[in-house]
């Protein structure tokens, strides 16, 4: 039996993430020579060389356009540290580098957009780095191995030229012949960094892999960034230390890497501490995509995973697995389009997010994570004898899911607050949506449940005190302040299921926005709209349901550092690195075992083909528009900015993803009151425009922009423009300005300009 699974399986994908289209550049040149054949001037940013700056300095750089014009371009920061800012008009990038920041090398991504399209350019900034070593075909050192085997100081950065590397000469770790290839161990003041020239631009396969082990070199204070591993995986292992914690890997940052897993290793960490996984992506095979086993102080932040297929990998199947792991946080992760269950060998479904405990207890915070379009349960928060997973779920989303078993197995000491759950099609309808057995679940509150096709919603959510969990007990608050709609499922109030429900706080309103239900709060799965029917219903007089519109945890921060677990106020959308993630996920093509049946009862009936080009990874879409537009409403314009001379203000925003353009009939630009969030003075803009000059604005800097849908009405707004007045030169200098000496100075022609801040 041979089958084809997935849409657009024959669509070609760009061969290189770093390559500009030669054909497009030729046509743009012809359009200059022959204006009658002129094409739209999609912005194109000139390649940016590596930059350097010392701690305590201000980095400044002005990118150049090779097509498009500054007069109509909307500049934004697509990727980088939180403190990086960009100025409209000039596109000047600035970064006040803290004097206390450890030495490290960073990616910055800058985007230029106009009505015709957008371009993102990534480049590297070295901060206080003592030595930079380049390897690749264009350099004297052709592969990473010889560079890693040589003597270099702590804090050295190794930059690998974009391309494909396949031999153990490019491996990071212990080679099969006993040769050690590791960067020098860093320290609290200097991270040693190994990174690709651009995110996703270096592919490792076959014997080229990343395997950091305790006892091999000095696996401390390291950063690994930007690699795409096509098969071998990326692992950090401390079992080799035999319990010697001083030998175990610690303070390691894994950033902007991707793995196409082929039943070997995905992202895996074991017996290590102080680990950060940020902006990575995983897809393909194996029973786990991100696995943390006996890890302490680990943060998984802004990662994306898709559970595609699994064969010859027995055991429970988990996307993000925090296995007997303590002091763990999962922030702003996305499990998306895990919609191919007939390519998964029969096994226990442990969920998109889970914490097994068969080897010891777990403690995990799940904050602002999203499960979308999936055939997996949300997760198993496990309990095994005296071991349990103490899990706090706060502002999480599960939407359009077709699970086989209990959707949320809240068996450990689980507390669920502000969750949005919708369009759940249970394959075993007599199973509970949320199962709190055995009397450890702490509470379920302030949440939305919509269209859950199951017989029973809750089991064992009682008042009182939990059993002893990891040496302590917790208060149980039962079920309160939730909205339940479009389901015939029993709420099981105060019956044999062990639930305690505050029925006075349960509402049954339709939360889904439509033209016929304009008070519905959910235009988008990501939030409740202001002043709608879910507003003021939680136990603090705020809205029910999850809000996943900003980022939690400062970029690059490890456990215990600064704002590692606080609100940043930075927009979560457009999602960081979404261009790279989509391109790589769309490239996947798999042919293998195909199963019939459900859950553990599946049997193989043949082979079939699974394409990576499905869901968000299809032509004309991106992750941001896919998530925001999932309920079919107009997606709010992103990256709204304002630039003023004190009299008039130019408001700009990004164009929609191309697959959504046809339904947009225009835009509205409003004055925005930051205190009351009130909108006023709407101004209409045509659908082929992405800017508006507000005359006689008086220097107003706060505007909100909405989009008009041909059949669904007006969108909400995403993030209002905000900023502060700054003085800039007529053409801002490019370079580094030392705070102490002000080494770069020039006569200043003062122009009032708005900085597109991300605070």
List the helices and strands and how they pair.
Elements: E1 4-5, H1 22-33, E2 44-45, E3 51-53, E4 57-61, E5 65-67, E6 74-79, E7 85-87, E8 93-96, E9 104-114, E10 117-127, E11 132-135, H2 144-149, E12 157-160, E13 163-165, E14 172-174, E15 180-181, E16 192-196, E17 202-204, E18 210-213, E19 220-225, E20 227-231, E21 234-237, E22 250-255, E23 258-261, E24 267-278, E25 281-284, E26 288-301, E27 304-305, E28 317-323, E29 326-331, E30 334-338, E31 349-354, E32 362-367, E33 370-374, E34 379-381, E35 383-384, E36 387-401, E37 408-410, E38 414-425, E39 432-435, E40 443-453, E41 456-459, E42 463-465, E43 475-485, E44 506-507, E45 550-552, E46 567-571, H3 578-586, E47 589-596, E48 603-611, H4 623-628, E49 641-644, E50 649-652, E51 664-672, E52 679-686, E53 691-694, E54 703-709, E55 713-714, E56 725-728, E57 735-738, E58 751-756
Parallel strand pairs: 1-48, 3-10, 11-12, 12-16, 13-17, 14-18, 16-19, 17-20, 18-21, 19-22, 20-23, 21-24, 22-24, 23-25, 24-26, 25-27, 26-28, 26-29, 27-30, 28-31, 29-32, 30-33, 32-36, 33-36, 34-37, 36-38, 37-39, 38-40, 39-41, 40-43, 43-44
Antiparallel strand pairs: 2-5, 4-8, 4-57, 6-9, 7-8, 7-58, 9-10, 14-15, 35-36, 42-43, 45-46, 47-48, 49-50, 50-53, 51-52, 51-54, 54-55, 56-58
């Amino acid at each position: 039996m041979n089958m084809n699974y997935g849409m657009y399986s024959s669509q070609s994908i760009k061969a290189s993430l770093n390559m500009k289209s030669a054909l497009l550049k030729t046509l743009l040149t012809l359009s200059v020579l022959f204006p009658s054949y002129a094409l739209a001037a999609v912005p194109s940013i000139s390649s940016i060389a590596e930059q350097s700056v010392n701690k305590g300095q201000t980095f400044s750089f002005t990118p150049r356009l090779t097509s498009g014009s500054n007069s109509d371009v909307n500049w934004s920061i697509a990727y980088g540290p939180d403190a990086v800012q960009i100025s409209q008009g000039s596109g000047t990038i600035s970064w006040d580098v803290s004097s206390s920041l450890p030495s490290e090398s960073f990616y910055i991504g800058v985007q230029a957009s106009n009505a015709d399209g957008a371009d993102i350019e990534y480049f590297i900034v070295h901060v206080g780095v003592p030595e930079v070593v380049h390897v690749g075909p264009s350099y004297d050192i052709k592969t990473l191995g010889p560079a890693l085997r040589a003597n270099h100081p702590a804090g050295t950065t190794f930059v690998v030229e974009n391309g494909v590397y396949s031999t153990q000469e490019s491996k990071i770790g212990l080679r099969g012949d006993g040769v050690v290839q590791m960067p020098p161990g860093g320290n609290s003041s200097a991270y040693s960094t190994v990174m690709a020239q651009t995110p996703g631009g270096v592919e490792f396969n076959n014997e080229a892999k990343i395997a950091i082990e305790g006892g091999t070199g000095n696996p401390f204070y390291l950063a690994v960034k930007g690699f795409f591993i096509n098969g071998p995986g990326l692992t950090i292992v401390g079992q080799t230390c035999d319990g010697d914690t001083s030998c175990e890997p610690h303070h390691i940052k894994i950033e902007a890497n991707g793995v196409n897993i082929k039943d070997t290793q995905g992202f895996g960490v074991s017996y290590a501490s102080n680990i950060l996984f940020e902006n990575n992506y995983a897809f393909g095979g194996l029973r786990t995509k991100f696995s943390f086993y006996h890890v302490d102080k680990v943060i998984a932040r802004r990662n994306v995973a898709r559970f595609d297929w699994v064969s010859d990998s027995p055991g429970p199947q988990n996307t993000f697995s925090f296995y007997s792991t303590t002091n763990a946080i999962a922030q702003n992760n996305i499990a998306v389009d895990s919609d191919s269950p007939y390519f998964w060998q029969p096994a226990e479904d442990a969920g998109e997010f889970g914490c097994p405990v068969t080897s010891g207890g777990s403690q995990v915070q799940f904050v602002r994570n999203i499960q979308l379009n999936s055939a997996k349960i949300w997760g198993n928060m496990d309990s095994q004898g005296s071991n349990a997973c103490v899990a706090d779920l706060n502002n999480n989303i599960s939407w359009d899911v077709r699970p086989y078993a209990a959707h949320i197995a809240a068996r450990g000491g689980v507390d669920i607050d502000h969750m949005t759950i919708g369009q759940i099609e249970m394959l075993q309808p007599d199973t509970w949506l949320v199962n709190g057995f055995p009397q450890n679940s702490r509470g379920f509150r302030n949440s939305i449940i919509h269209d859950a096709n199951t017989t029973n919603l809750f089991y064992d959510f009682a008042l009182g005190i939990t059993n002893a969990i990891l040496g302590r007990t917790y208060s149980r608050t039962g079920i309160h302040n939730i909205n339940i709609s479009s389901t015939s499922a029993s709420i099981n109030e105060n019956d044999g299921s062990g639930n305690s429900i505050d029925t006075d706080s349960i509402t049954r309103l339709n939360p889904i926005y439509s033209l016929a239900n304009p008070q519905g709060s959910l235009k988008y799965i990501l939030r409740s709209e202001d002043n709608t029917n879910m507003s003021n219903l939680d136990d603090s007089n705020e809205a029910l349901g999850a809000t996943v519109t900003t980022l939690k945890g400062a970029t690059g921060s490890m456990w215990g550092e600064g704002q590692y677990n606080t609100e940043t106020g930075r927009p979560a959308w457009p999602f960081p690195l979404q261009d790279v993630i989509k391109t790589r996920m769309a490239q996947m093509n798999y042919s293998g075992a195909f199963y019939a049946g459900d859950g553990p009862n599946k049997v193989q009936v043949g082979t079939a083909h699974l394409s990576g080009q499905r869901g968000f990874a299809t032509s004309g879409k991106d992750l941001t528009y896919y998530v925001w537009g999932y309920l079919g409403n107009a997606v709010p314009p992103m990256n709204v900015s304002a630039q003023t001379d004190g009299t008039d203000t130019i408001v700009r925003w990004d164009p929609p993803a191309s697959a959504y353009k046809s339904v947009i009939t225009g835009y509205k630009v409003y004055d925005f009151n930051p205190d009351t969030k009130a909108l006023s003075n709407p101004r209409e803009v045509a659908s082929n425009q992405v800017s508006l000059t507000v005359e006689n604005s008086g220097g107003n800097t706060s505007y909100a922009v909405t989009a008009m849908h041909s059949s669904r009405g007006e969108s909400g707004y995403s993030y209002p423009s905000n900023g502060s007045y700054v003085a800039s030169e007529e053409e801002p200098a490019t370079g580094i300005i030392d705070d102490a000496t002000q080494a770069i100075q020039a006569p200043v022609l003062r122009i009032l300009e708005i900085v597109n801040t991300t605070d």
